[in-house]
Amino acid sequence: MSVPIENEKDAQVVEAYIKPQQRLLHDSSVTFEEYHYYALRTRAEEEEIDRNDPDRGKTNILQLIFPAKSGSGVQGKTPTAPAGLSDEEHRSSANANFANASTRAHISDEEWKNASRALRTATWSACFYLITTDILGPFGIGFSLGTLGWGPGIALFTVFGATAGYSGYLLWKMYLGLDSYEFPMKNYGDIAFRVYGPVFRYGVNILQSIQLLCNVGLIIISNGQAISQVSKFKLCYTVCCLIWAIVGFGIGQVRTLQKYGWLANAAVFINLLIMFISMGVIAHSPPNFSIAVLGSAGASTNPDTITPDKNGNYPPIVHYNSLPNPNSLIGSINGLMQGVYAYGGAQLFVEFMAEMRRPRDFLKSMWLAQAFIYTCYMVYGCYVYFWQGQYAYQISYQGVSPYGWQTAGNILAVISGIIAAGLYGNIGIKVLYNNILMDLFKCPPLTTKSGKILWAIIVPIYWSIAFVVAAAIPDFFGLVSVVAAFCIIQFCYSFPPLLALGYFMQRDAIQAEQGEGFDPATGRVVRHDSGLRRWARGFMAGPWYMNAWNVIYLGGALATAGLGAYAAVQGMINAFENPQLNAFTCTSPLNLNA
Predict the structure, then answer these.
(1) What pLDDT, in 10s, does the model give residues 260-294?
(2) Domains and CATH numbers, the chain
(3) Sign of CA dihedral 16, 17, 21, 24
(4) Residue 203 has pLDDT above 80, yes or no
(5) Strand order in the sheet with 3-5
(6) How do beta strands 3-5 and 524-526 pair?
(7) What is the pLDDT of residue 12?
(8) How many Cβ atoms from other residues are within 10 Å of residue 289's Cβ?
(9) Backbone angles phi, psi at 122, to 5 degrees
(10) Angle at which helices 141-148 and 329-342 pack, to 10 degrees?
(11) What pLDDT, on a 0 to 100 scale, did the predictor assign at position 69?
(12) Which are the contacts of 544, defined by CB distance < 8 A and separation ≥ 6?
């Protein structure tokens, strides 16, 4: 194993160095230096492959719009049969259970690396659509601007977009410095584990699992409400929701993100179509006055601006350059949180990088996606707020007055929504599979035949649990707001600078010129100091001003998370003051005449 040695004179050669393939999946004895050493070696190998790839950099516009449905993994050397294995046994090792330590003991170094390479199939263009599908949610931006006003709204959406991109950059830097073919990273919790240890990993995995399960449940329930509205409440509400859980059984069978790129591609264009349709309708018809009291910007900040007079005439549309009602703290915070949540997708970034053929290209995918998303938010949000003002509804396509166009928006949105739910379910199942089934129960990798069968069995169970949890809780949307405040903000804004501080301080504390670091021949790790002294030296050894900025960024993120949690909990308290319906009834909560 890797042995940290604080003094060079005390260094001893480890006679039986434990190779990466012979370790536990999450082995706390592996040091930061060992992870970093193999990561640098993997990055060097990827660069060599890139230099010899004749198709590198030749992606054309059609390949960007229609990314390849599937592809082979990163190509490595063809390994020879290791000692102790016959050729037949060696050929069958591709279907071996690498989660079992006794099996890994007979795997050669090159076989172990090839097993990791085989999982890396996604292209940067497919990753662009995955990121966009994960993050893009423009239909509440007009509402958010209505609660904040032109100046604060545009400024905050710009700041949140930039900081979300910076968080993605930090995750990318840490991934490149800690992931390798020998020690592949598979999810967000792996960064937490390699920087701060197993306790932090457990917390991150639990939060991510709860959030992804709630995201799937939220889309099942919201799609059910959309179908109940389209059917004019003639179809039992429980059936409306159950339909989408069953659809999830099928869409969840897509295992690799590269293949999911085509579905993500469709989801992006469906969302754009909804935007264009609703923009045309909004410009030529009045707002949906009748539902303004249920969830418009005016209802959140200043109800008098949406209340009709005694003759049934609604107040005229108004706009604000600053906060519409400085005394309405909860309303403004809810609008602020819309901006925070609008860019919340970083909890899936590590999973995306883990399946990319060239992880270095993730930065290109991420910044291109963030620029596209920001443009959509600003153009669409400002457009909706300009035409509808304080009547801008939380779900913009439901805020149009013609019923036919409401229906068109609902139908397109449920298709896009179920694709997004499939993406969340895909990652959610992988988090549970990699961290519980493989780690604790030694289940086979998903690349094996038995792993694929197990995946097919788990998918309907996962979607059923998401449906039951979402359906059983009154005011589930309120619960999701609470989960979002405690999870989305952390993954997108709080955890990246916190993890980056630990990563950069440990990386920059390594004094390679003085003999510190990891020796792969012996498994020896040399450190000349430890504890707070080493952490402080690491803080100042690198660009200290970036570390200082990360401290400031972390403080701002935690303060924002506190505001979000306050608003979400207060919203739940207010919601439960009235009787609530769950999804185990035939009566839709949208049916005000029931």
Answers:
(1) 888 888 999 999 999 999 999 999 999 999 888 87
(2) 3-51+108-575 (1.10.4160)
(3) positive
(4) yes
(5) 3-5, 524-526, 517-519
(6) parallel
(7) 38
(8) 17
(9) -75, 140
(10) 140
(11) 52
(12) none
